[in-house]
């Protein structure tokens, strides 16, 4: 049992079924998709930066990301409607599980001064967002070719209906939450 997907189907799902008191194993929450976003910000006019961002996000996710356009014009940001403002890649299936395993076992432990993820980053519908300040924590990024550090956001969408079940799912998958903040949240 080397992959996270195999562990989920053979161990974790049955354990979650007992913990949650769910009768049908298909009602146990699972990960639906993972979306990885990277904004280009003030460098949106620089062709080299845009190409580097595209290459970095492709290396991180294992698939080619799509450009995201602005929905409206904001003059104070020198932004026009329809202008490319960021990149997004949506992962599903085996690629999603591989990314999740890489995130939990390799990337998060490599973050400097990492004390665990905040349990407050759930959205109320069972989805969890993680902000990563330096894209160089991913081992697939060649740090020798990096000229500017880029930040990105990872959103994990689950089939859980509430945050408590999504928290149990992510914790059982190995996501390291900040224990002190978890204890404070449980006391409330």
TrEMBL record:
| Highest taxon above the source species | Bacteria
Question: Which keywords belong to this entry?
Answer: Ribonucleoprotein, Ribosomal protein, RNA-binding, rRNA-binding, tRNA-binding
Residue span, Large ribosomal subunit protein uL5 N-terminal domain:
24-80
Q: Which GO terms describe its molecular function?
A: rRNA binding; structural constituent of ribosome; tRNA binding
Q: Which residues form the Large ribosomal subunit protein uL5 C-terminal domain?
A: 85-177
What are the GO cellular component annotations?
ribonucleoprotein complex; ribosome
Q: Name one GO biological process term.
A: translation
What family, per the record? Belongs to the universal ribosomal protein uL5 family.
Q: How does it assemble?
A: Part of the 50S ribosomal subunit; part of the 5S rRNA/L5/L18/L25 subcomplex. Contacts the 5S rRNA and the P site tRNA. Forms a bridge to the 30S subunit in the 70S ribosome.
Role, per record? This is 1 of the proteins that bind and probably mediate the attachment of the 5S RNA into the large ribosomal subunit, where it forms part of the central protuberance. In the 70S ribosome it contacts protein S13 of the 30S subunit (bridge B1b), connecting the 2 subunits; this bridge is implicated in subunit movement. Contacts the P site tRNA; the 5S rRNA and some of its associated proteins might help stabilize positioning of ribosome-bound tRNAs.
Query: What name appears for this protein in its UniProt entry?
Result: Large ribosomal subunit protein uL5
